[in-house]
Amino acid sequence: MRENGAPVRLFGGLHPGLLYCRAMAAVRLEARELARTYGRRTVLKGVSFSAQAGQLWAVLGPNGSGKSTLLKVLAGLLRPSKGATELEVDGRRMPGPERRVALGLVSPEISTYEELTGLENLDFAARMRGEPREPERLQAALEAVGLGRAAHVPSGSYSSGMKQRLKLALAVQHRPALLLLDEPMALLDEEGRACVRQMVERQLVGGIVMWATNDPSELPRERHEIHLGA
Amino acid sequence: MGRVSRGLLSRALEVARKDWRSERRAQSGLASIGLFALVTLAVLSFSVGPFGAGADLQAALLWVLLLFTGLSGLARVYIREVDSHTAAHLKLLAGPLEVLVGKSLFNLWLLVLVELFVVPLYLVLMAPRVRDFRVLLATLALADVGLVAVSTLLAAVVAQARTRGALFSGLAIPILIPLLLAAIGGTKAALGVTPDARTHLVMLASLDAVLLGVSVFLIEPVWNE
Question: How far is the C-alpha of B161 from the C-alpha of B177, rounded, in Å?
């Protein structure tokens, strides 16, 4: 969207059209009796919940309880051994290929392409999702996570905190209906943590957030909870 | 259907472009394949020489060179994604078929680049008399497609395994033997050893169709956990 020939930018570079659309869309995530086994070891068993737009769901549990596994199953990276998940946006079910466009994931097990710059990483993801080429929007997304000056630097030379910020930018650049966060505060300084909180606030305007963490104190007070490994 | 194909192809091209951009900066794959090919060619040249082998042996040696050059480097496309922990990131952006096509296009480009250098050098150092360059080029093109189809699919298979090198070669070589024999036959025809090029070229094209079809069919269960 342009005004007098210049691109319109909001805080964080959010396109006003996208913000409006996300606010109006009805998003629902349902999980029914999810289970996942690795050989003889059962990591997830009988996990069921129903999440609506505007809700934050905290995934809590001790190490090895299956928090990361649950997020990976919800993201479609792992098939559940039993049970099913369903993501609906505006009353329309999102099957496998479409779900990829509707979700974002931040995880310690995911890395960005180190030979590519921060901007190139975002550009690749945008092209794969079929989004129009808007370099200024991508630059704004990097600035929103404090990586504006490092946009043209290969991400392999980023510090661990900068890499985490790049993952955040990648997860939210397309305003997903479902944002999955696995230890998003890891490796971040206070400014980075503030970025995460702001992103979650924006995401909750019409979207769902699933947040897995070992530290419940970093979570917002208003939340639903899933306790694993109990 | 047409729109689906165009969407798949455009995303596959983005995957290939991303791999090529990474390769240009890291220069690890191209350098290792190129170096392997040069060293092997140098050994052949010094040990056999331009007058030490008949045309049929020269045809076979060319394909031994190209086969092992391919095996030395074409598996990296998937292994690199797993080792650098970008496989899950890629799965969030693309389906298994788009990734397979993209990485196959990248591998084909890599192999062609190496052959643009190695094959002319082979012709100079080993001095086979090529009677029909069109048949030679057609043989190279068709055999490359088959070699890339097998290598790329098996790369996806072994990427998660621990003993990748041995497993990759162990799986690839038996599957590639028919392709190799047909490629040698086509090259012999190009060198004038046998008159019939058509049979071998048809065999190569048929094998390509089968191998590509099998790759498309198998990639989904291989790539998704």
Answer: 23
- Report the distance separating Cα B7 and Cα A225, nearest Å: 39
Q: How many domains does chain B have?
A: 1
Cβ neighbours around B1 below 10 Å, total: 5
Residue A152 sits at the chain B interface (C-beta within 8 Å): no
β-strand pairing of A56-60 with A224-227:
parallel
Tell whether A163 lies on the interface with B, counting CB pairs under 8 A: no
Q: Report the complex ipTM.
A: 0.87
Tens digits of pLDDT across chain B (225 residues):
566 677 899 999 999 999 999 998 987 778 888 888 999 999 988 888 777 778 889 999 999 999 988 888 888 889 899 999 999 999 999 999 999 999 999 999 999 999 999 999 999 999 889 999 999 999 999 999 999 999 999 999 988 777 777 788 888 999 999 999 999 999 999 999 998 999 999 999 999 999 999 999 999 988 887
Q: Does A136 touch chain B (CB under 8 A)?
A: no
- Spell out which residues of chain B touch residue A157, defining contact as CB-CB under 8 Å: none
How many Å lie between the alpha carbon of B47 and the closest alpha carbon of chain A?
40
φ/ψ bin of A52: left (φ > 0), alpha (ψ from -120 to 50), beta (otherwise): beta
Report chain B residues whose CB lies below 8 A from the CB of A79. 224-225
Note whether A113 contacts B86, CB cutoff 8 Å: yes
Q: Which domain holds residue B125?
A: 2-223
Distance CA B91, CA A158 (A): 23
Please return the burial class of A94, using the count of CB atoms within 10 Å of its CB with bins 0-12, 13-18 and 19+: buried
Choose among A113, A23, A142: nearest CA to B93: A113
User: Which runs of E-coded beta strand occur in chain B?
Assistant: none
